Amino acid sequence: MRINRYVTHAVVLLVAAVLSSFSLSSYLKPAQGSIDARAANAGATVGDVSIGRDTTIIQPVSIPTSALPSHTPIFYKVAAGDTLDGIAKTLDVPFREITWSNPGLRLPLVAGQVLRLPPVPGFVVTVKRGDSLASIAMANGTDPLTIVDFNRTTGPLTPGTTLVIPVDPEVGPNLPSGVPADPIKPGEFVCPILGSSIIQGFGPSSFGLDAPYDGYLHFHKGVDIVGAYGTPIDAAAGGKVTAVGFLGGFGLRVEVTDSYGLVEIYAHMSEASVAIGQQVQQGDKLGLVGSTGNSIGPHLHFQLEIGGVPTDPRPLSGCAG
Known about the structure:
Elements: H1 2-19, H2 37-42, E1 44-46, E2 49-51, E3 57-58, E4 74-77, H3 84-91, H4 95-101, E5 114-117, E6 122-126, H5 133-139, H6 144-151, E7 162-166, E8 189-190, E9 198-200, E10 203-204, E11 219-220, E12 223-226, E13 232-234, E14 239-246, E15 252-258, E16 263-272, E17 279-280, E18 285-289, E19 299-306, E20 309-311, E21 316-317
Parallel strand pairs: 8-21
Antiparallel strand pairs: 1-2, 2-3, 4-5, 6-7, 9-12, 10-11, 12-19, 13-18, 14-15, 14-17, 15-16, 16-18, 16-19, 19-20
């Protein structure tokens, strides 16, 4: 009879609890990591989770604090007195990306001309008749999806429009074959004879073999690098071989139009080991040191041209002087 009385009493209490919305959880210690419904109704924060009045769990949203990169090419109108180096420094765009984005660019710059510049590391291309995403990607050794993703376009392409081709500056451009053009020093020139010294620099000189140029009686249009007869000459930067053969005072020379549109000239060679149209990577062998043309001894004359105008090729990574 005593047991039945206790059981009856427990049942009565349980029924009363249900009818009065009694919750046993109010007497229990919340388990670690659990969320209290009353805290949720009142609005609270548990760890990094915000809890709304309606018990909706809201994860914090990360908001970028820096400006998102532009996807639109920059168009710069050249002012009187502008130079390629000056524009590059003012806009913080490497001058190679300016030449890369403006094929056929000639120096000095002309006031009023408009230069295309990339908003991110890379280059700008202008769509020509017959171009497609696939053909542009193939010509530059990139993936069509890269072009589509950055420019938010799927084609067909309209002639005259511009596209930005982003490039990882740590890797540099690719050759049309898809391999890196400059695997040794992306975006830089390496010494064509690694470890050798520069024995004559770029600029006005007193050497009688140097022809008149830019108002000077004698002007050296490149740099001379010492090298014994037959020493291998390597490509300072990757690109396409656009000339091989004898040419006046250069003697036997090789010309490489690199990925940025700059023309590299390797002169006074004794032997050339590449052919016109061949793609070369930075560091590939181009030929051997000689003393052909206007030369008084074995050495390499390395000349850099932008639109036919000589410019100082230094710095040359790996040269001793």
